[in-house]
Specification:
Largest sheet: 3 strands, antiparallel
Strand order of the largest sheet: 3-2-5
Distance between the termini: 32 Å
Order of helices and strands: HEEEEE
Number of strands: 5
Length: 113
C-alpha cells in the first residue's frame, strides 16, 4: 500500500537479502529503519554514449545538504527497465531525512556491468 501514512525502510548499505547465503552471499535477515518523512524525487539521465545503458546496476545515493545527509536504498522502478541509453528515469524516494538545500550527491554503484 502506498498510502499517506505508509512507512518506508531502506537498505542503505545495499546488502543482499536471500534465503540461503551459502550459495548467493548476503544475509538471511535484515533490520530496516524509517529515516524520516521527507520525499525526494530523483531524476537520472543515462548517457547516449555506446554501452552506457544497463539493467544490472544497483545504484544508491547519498544526499548531502546544509542540514545533514541521508542515504537512499537501491533506486529501482519496479516493472521498468531503468537506466536505458539516452533516457531519463525518475525515482520517488519517500521516508527520507530532510537535509535542506542539497550541496552534494554521492553515487554508489554495484552490479555486473
Amino acid at each position: 500500500s502506498s498510502g499517506i501514512n505508509a512507512e518506508y525502510g531502506y537498505n542503505t548499505k545495499g546488502t543482499v537479502l536471500n534465503g540461503d547465503h551459502r550459495y548467493y552471499g548476503g544475509v538471511t535477515s535484515l533490520q530496516m529503519r524509517k529515516q524520516c518523512n521527507e520525499h525526494y524525487y530523483i531524476t537520472a539521465l543515462t548517457s547516449t554514449e555506446s554501452r552506457s545503458q544497463t539493467d544490472k546496476i544497483h545504484l544508491r545515493m547519498k544526499l548531502i545538504g546544509e542540514r545533514g545527509a541521508t542515504i537512499t536504498g537501491i533506486l529501482d522502478n519496479e516493472g521498468r527497465n531503468d537506466f536505458r541509453r539516452g533516457e531519463d528515469d525518475t525515482f520517488v524516494v519517500p521516508g527520507m531525512k530532510f537535509v535542506g538545500k542539497i550541496r552534494c550527491i554521492e553515487l554508489y554503484a554495484e552490479g555486473s556491468d
